[in-house]
Amino acid sequence: MPDIAAPTVVAPAAPSSASKPAPVKVSRFKVPGEGSSFGISVATVIVLLVLWTLVTNAGWVKPLFLPKPQAVFQQFVEYLTGRANDKPLWQHFSASMFRVFTAFFVACLTAIPIGIAMGMSRVARGIFDPPLEFYRPLPPLAYLPLIIIWFGIDELPKVLLIFLSCFAPLALAARSGMRSASQEQINAAYSMGASYMQVIRHVILPSALPDILVGMRIAIGFGWTTLVAAEMVASNVGLGQMVLNASNFLRTDIVIMGIIVIGVVAYLFDLLMRWIEVKLVPWKGKM
Q1: How far, in whole angstroms, is CA 105 from its chain's centroid?
Q2: Number of C-beta neighbours around residue 85 at 10 A
């Protein structure tokens, strides 16, 4: 038999340096905007404080329009220690906290179930949607006189005004969240034998929870925004009343001190809501 030559194996040629693909630059952030901004926020606050100090100490702005940071801090210390010609800061603070968080708690108990019902039932949506959309764009000062006429000048109109400012964003956020669950998730739950109420409890409500928490953050912000208007109603204590009373006497240092306290408290509560959101809905943004 004739000899059969063994097949010749040709090794692949090594790629030349000219054919190598260029290295792809990979961002150190997987998602745009990812990463901590704490350092930038701290630097921004420091820069603003430095600018405020320079402008006021140089005399470029009159103290009536923008007092020095030292004067504002001095008023804070006097109110905190009870040496001011007014009630101490803790009384103003506790009165405002009671009004805002009472209204916010009642709004959560009522607005979230109504929003869930609006998201699940066209009848509930038809009942509650018109009044919600009617009063939602109205500024609180527009219906404040009517609330005073109906409910007097005690604590109820103050809490009610803040309650109305919190109610609409909570209800609308809950209604929007009820549509967050995909039809595939609902069908999968039904295919495994889940009942209608089990689908709502285990599929729809967990999907709606991120939107509800965002609505709570927005609602508490609206509540603090309405605080000054609410405490215009024959009030003798409260952060908003303290600011209004100081503005009548052109005490800009007290006005700015009160504004800073209101803003810091609102920001701290927003941070608390963000922490709660991370703990309750860790899957948000990862789906």
Answers
A1: 15
A2: 6
Mean pLDDT for the stretch of residues 192-216: 84
CB 211, CB 76: distance < 8 Å: no
Q: Which residue has the higher pLDDT, 255 or 181?
A: 255
Within a domain: 228: yes
Q: What is the predicted pLDDT for the residue at 1? A: 45
CATH number at residue 211: 1.10.3720.10
pLDDT in tens, 164-197: 999 999 999 999 888 877 778 778 888 888 887 8
Using one digit for the tens of pLDDT, what is the confidence trace for 171-180? Answer: 999 998 888 7
Asked whether 178 and 122 are in contact (CB, 8 A), the reply is no
Same domain, yes or no: 161 and 81: no
One domain, residues 80 and 103 = no
Q: Is the pLDDT of residue 3 over 70?
A: no
Number of residues assigned to the chain: 287
Tell me, yes or no, whether 116 and 245 share the same domain: yes
